[in-house]
Amino acid sequence: MTPDSAAAPASQATDDAYTNPLRDPRDRRLPRIAGPSVLVMFGVTGDLARKKLMPAVYDLANRGLLPPGFAFVGFARRDWEDQDFAEVVGEAVRQHARTPFREEVWQQLLSGIRFVQGEFTDDEAFARLKATLDDLDRTQGTGGNHAFYLSVPPKFFDVVLEQLKHHGMADQQHGWKRVIIEKPFGHDLASAKQLEKVVSASFTEDQVFRIDHYLGKETVQNLLALRFANTMFEPLWNNNFISHVQITMAEDIGIGGRAGYYDGVGAARDVIQNHLLQLFALTAMEEPTGMGASVLRAEKEKVLEAASATRKFDLHTARGIYAGGWSGGELVKGYLEEDGIPETSTTETYAAIRVDVHNRRWAGVPFYLRTGKRMPSRVTEVALQFKTLPFVPFNAHDTATLGGNSLVLRIQPEEGVTLRFGAKVPGTQMEVRDVNMDFDYGSSFTESSPEAYERLILDVLLGDPPLFPRSKEVEESWRILDPVLDYWEGTGTQPETYRPGTWGPKSARDMLARDGFTWRRP
Amino acid sequence: MTIEMKNTTAAKVAKALLDWHRERGSSGSGMVHTFVVATDRDDFDEAYQAALAANREHPSRILIVVRDPGAEDGLDAEIHTDSDARGDMMVLTMRGRTVEHPGSVLRPLLVPDLPVVVWWPNEAPEDLLTDRIGKLADRRITDALGAEDPTQAIIDRAYYHSPGDSDLAWTRTTRWRALLAAALDQVKAPVTAATVEAATDNAPASLLAAWLELKLGVEVTVSRTDGPGITAVRMTTPSGPIEIVRIGPDETVYRVPDQPERSVALRRRPVAELVTEELRRMDDDVVLADVLAEMVRQNGQCALDLSGHPGNLQHPVQPSA
């Protein structure tokens, strides 16, 4: 197992007893540069590859974080030569990279760009891939260190992993081999376990990096720092002070061209299972004993184990689909009218569930998780709502417009923290009203904080796994969500429609009203 | 727009700043430090632009201090409300005897409770910690290459180093150091000898050589080339040579044993980028302190000709006997 040490790149630390005299844990300026390696990407023609992954690779190179020996290999069906692929990468970099385009950096990357043409079932193509990697190990000095990024639909995972194993590309005798997979990790507990079986047949747990690109490492670390590097929040972070917690991820767009993927999956599987339950775990977990991979995971697993969706799903869950109508001044189609969606679809585009945590810290504090498409705005946040005062020494009129205090961890679009509290309105009248105190990461620090994918790719190349979920967390999340999904399926009905550009269906409002709360307007 | 105030006082400037914040509808919060730039008229433009660029990553209150000791006593101030700074941008011209009392002007204008950083883009005082502006600061940044005599400047830095001090000459070595460390990550072999090649009197080269000597425990030769700056570093190992050679402004060659030669990106970075790197850390650079102590140890008193130097006993870095 990879040690949790932060001092030296883990890949080197495991090799042998050599300590690099030029590395000094106190030397905070020296970036951790990944060792020589090849990043192999399956599914290079997708949007994600062009808009995020390729630019992230360039940005890393531009920041000097990629090693001199680095190669980037694309694998796809297209009939391309190396230079065609290089052109596609170049185009993607020029359009989407966050750092300025510099010819010398591009040239450095270019020398290691290769393309392998083939189908996933094509043995010869994988033999060619193996030959390409061997050649790169020789010419670029990439030392047998290979990361395989599966930016492909999950149904191809097993065939690709099988091929890699079959052609000796999972073998770690010479250099490390790592595989990166993205959510969804299955569509329920059973399929997640099945996927795990497929993955673990070819790769060990330490070689597998599960990526949730919504939840960048930066965000996770910000949350950890806020909770555990401050005195003033943690004492309030429990059922003595918190009445309930709302975790929201809203998108203002519809499903776009993703009908094929989305229908049958739906909002809960797409977002709640991974993203929202990860945010939940980070918000609700106990203080870890350190920031190492295993201790962080242990705390997340513990709180997930203590959590379950509240029974009586008819009262404590809500699901919906967007109807056609006006959204943001634009006439949009309803979900059932989108291309490729059958009229009889029961897939939801809005989902809300209530999660209860059975431990001393959180007993009696409901966590509400909601996500939806065609909401009024694109926003992700965790809002801790404080209990109302047992006694208010002002008369009712003075505090008529006063809500409860809340602490909001804003994650998107502008990462930051908002504290809402009551303040007296200036003037001779005694009137107390809610005000917001805002902190933005963006305006207080750095415009060049690394993009989520840059951190992800770098962590994979460094072999630094801390914040990637392991199969246990994935399975716990399914365990929480599965009963809700079963209930919804069992009703045999279509989800309730909601107008596009609104905060979801009526049942979602009712579900909170039953507990005496209302949804925050993010 | 610029709010211009002639013959003014710090209190009036602070008031004008507050009024402007009110008018703009912001409290001026979100700033992470006060950034004081101690400069002269000559280098004003470059320092101004670099401060502004660094401010993009670290929103701050920028106080540019221009010293004009020859003029009549007084203080002039400009608040640049139209600069694209994400905090406040002010130019404070101290005239005549005011130059002797910069603290009286600066103290009322520092952002409460947050760190104060002072940057001297060219000539810096010998001892930063006892300097009238330097003593207000938590972090003090100098640039030996901006000084008239870079070698002497870096010697001053070495003898008078205190926690919180750093020099852009050191910042200029970061990319080189990163590549050299990465090379050893790959080669994993002891280094038996090393050479740094650089232009004559190149302060970053001296620092880089001292760092290598300190870390590798071998003698490091510094040989002279036409520059600019550091042009190559070569290390000898039993597995073969490690060489990083800058062959053009945009082209650097990287050679390690048993591997094909590669080109890497290692361009000379503009001052704004260097300052930005410095502002990322407010804590002490202990590695720099070690390197400066190593330089002092190596050079000893005679080589540096320290006659006349006060030799400050309160300082952590002491010339060895």
SSE layout and pairing:
The complex is a heterodimer of chains A (522) and B (321).
Chain A: H1 10-15, E1 37-42, H2 47-62, E2 70-76, H3 82-96, H4 103-110, E3 113-117, H5 123-139, E4 146-150, H6 157-166, E5 177-182, H7 189-202, E6 208-211, H8 217-228, E7 242-250, H9 259-262, H10 266-284, H11 293-305, E8 307-309, H12 313-316, E9 317-322, E10 325-327, E11 330-332, E12 350-357, E13 367-372, E14 379-386, E15 406-412, E16 416-424, E17 432-440, H13 441-444, H14 452-462, H15 471-491, E18 496-498, H16 506-513
Parallel strand pairs in A: 1-2, 1-4, 2-3, 4-5, 5-6, 7-13, 9-18
Antiparallel strand pairs in A: 7-14, 8-12, 9-12, 10-11, 12-13, 14-15, 15-16, 16-17
Chain B: E1 2-5, H1 10-24, E2 33-39, H2 44-57, E3 60-68, E4 74-80, E5 88-95, H3 102-106, E6 116-119, E7 139-142, H4 150-159, E8 165-167, H5 168-171, H6 174-187, E9 193-199, H7 203-216, E10 220-225, E11 230-237, E12 240-248, E13 251-255, E14 262-264, H8 271-279, H9 286-304
Parallel strand pairs in B: 2-3, 2-6, 3-5, 6-7, 7-8, 9-10
Antiparallel strand pairs in B: 1-4, 4-5, 9-11, 11-12, 12-13, 13-14
Supply database-style keywords:
heterodimer, A: 522 residues, alpha/beta, Rossmann fold, Dihydrodipicolinate Reductase, domain 2, 2 domains, ten-stranded mixed beta sheet, six-stranded parallel beta sheet, B: 321 residues, eight-stranded mixed beta sheet, six-stranded mixed beta sheet, 9 helices, 32% helix, elongated, disordered C terminus
In short:
Chain A is built from 16 helices and 18 strands. By secondary structure, chain A is an alpha/beta fold. Mean pLDDT of chain A is 88; it is low at 1-15.
Inertia-based shape of chain B? elongated
Number of strands of chain B: 14
Oligomer: heterodimer
- Classified by CATH, the class of the largest domain in chain A is Alpha Beta
Question: What structural class do helix, strand and pairing data of chain B support?
Answer: alpha/beta
Q: Tell me the radius of gyration of chain A.
A: 25 Å
Helix content of chain A: 25-40%
Number of domains of chain B: 2
Fraction in beta strands of chain A: 15-25%
Number of strands of chain A: 18
Determine the structural class of chain A based on helices, strands and strand pairing. Answer: alpha/beta
Radius of gyration of chain B: 22 Å
Query: Tally the helices of chain B: what do you get?
Result: 9
Q: Mean of the pLDDT scores of chain B?
A: 86
Shape descriptor of chain A? globular
Low-confidence stretches of chain A: 1-15
Poorly predicted spans of chain B:
301-321
Secondary-structure element pattern of chain B, one letter each: EHEHEEEHEEHEHHEHEEEEEHH
Straight-line N-to-C gap of chain B: 58 Å
Q: Helical residue percent of chain B?
A: 25-40%
